[in-house]
Specification:
7-stranded parallel beta sheet, globular, single chain, Rossmann fold, 12 helices
Length: about 350
């Protein structure tokens, strides 16, 4: 069995990944600065479930010495720590840079200085592709669709960093691939679309599916920025965890590459369509009000996930209906934890 370091390991995706790895019999060091609301509960969950296999370390990726200490003896680093909100990056760009880019270089340097081939699997984002204004789309009653027939955006699409968040994550994305090519550190970049599921305490700024579900259950108004026809391919967290596991298993073979990981065309949904699904399942009228579009908001983003199929042998297994049902059940049981 292996030993892993998961940065951001008490966050939404990180805690699910740590739990999965522990369930496989591995030992996991969870490294996190505990800055996000709700993560204390995730830490308790990990300790109560696998306290003998999970070590939780409070630390910050902006301090390289702490990462070096935490990585001692580890076989790989899953790097999920970071500042996650576009709006926060606009308000505090220097803090965003320190956390996302400097923190990522610190993780890479930790792997390089180890003297071992320690894989680094990096959590990137679809925001690196910008607003996709160059891709033609048309408006339909409840959603936008690509008007040129494409199924989704693939990894050869040009990168366009239009906010500090996109810039810090995108620059980290490029650094990770560069270390794979220059320093022989096995690295894989996973450019994630919208992930949702258990242990996500979504807010208006980040984690919109969880946020919508919590607001609907509380019968509170949901603010929709833009017209609500924006489309995203959404992916349940257990599916993305499998992608991280497969990326580690194949890191030597695909080092220095970036791969889209999302729900793909079959799991694409607009904001309005998700509201309709919630109304049908909960048998309520979901309150909503509209506000101006937000900076860099893509009218449509759907991941082309063919490279994930080919290089990782991965594809989603949880569809939107099943995933939404699970999200509703989890949120009902933990509604007090949502802000």
């Amino acid at each position: 069995m292996s030993q892993f370091l998961v940065t951001g390991g008490v966050g939404f995706i990180g805690s699910n990944l740590a739990m999965h790895l522990a369930c496989q019999g591995h030992t996991v060091r969870v490294f996190d600065n505990f800055s996000r609301p709700g993560v204390e509960e995730n830490a308790r969950w990990l300790e109560e479930s696998h306290g003998n296999q999970v070590e939780i370390i409070k630390g910050d990726v902006r301090t390289i010495e702490s990462i070096i200490d935490a990585s001692e003896g580890c076989d790989a680093i899953f790097h999920l720590a970071g500042q996650v909100a576009v709006t926060t990056s606009i308000q505090s760009p220097h803090a965003d840079f320190e956390c996302n880019l400097m923190g990522t270089v610190n993780v890479l340097e930790t792997a390089r200085r180890s003297g071992r081939k320690m894989p680094v699997i990096y959590a990137s984002t679809n925001k690196v592709y910008g607003d996709l204004a160059h891709i033609p789309c048309r408006e339909e009653p409840f959603r936008y669709v690509f008007s040129d027939g494409r199924l989704g955006v693939n990894e050869s699409a040009p990168l366009e960093f239009q906010t500090p968040y996109a810039c810090s994550k995108g620059a980290g994305d490029q650094y990770v691939m560069t270390y794979g090519r220059v320093y022989d550190v096995p690295t894989v970049v996973l450019r994630m679309s919208c992930i949702y599921g258990d242990r996500q305490f979504g807010t208006e700024d980040q984690g919109w599916v969880a946020h919508f579900v919590a607001k609907a259950l509380r019968k509170e108004a949901i603010v929709i920025y833009g017209d609500g026809k924006q489309v995203r391919d959404i992916l349940f967290v257990t599916d993305v965890v499998r992608a991280y596991e497969k990326a580690f298993e194949r890191a030597d073979l695909i080092s220095g590459t970036a791969i889209n990981v999302g729900g793909g065309p079959a799991n694409s949904v607009s904001l309005l369509e998700l509201l309709l699904m919630l109304e049908k399942r909960l048998e309520i009228q979901v309150k909503r009000r509209f506000a101006p579009w937000r900076q860099e908001d893509q009218k449509i983003f759907i991941s082309n996930i063919e490279q994930a199929r080919e290089r990782l042998g991965w594809y989603p297994v949880i569809d939107v209906q099943e995933g939404l049902a699970r999200m509703i059940e989890y949120t009902q049981d933990h509604i007090d934890w949502f802000v």
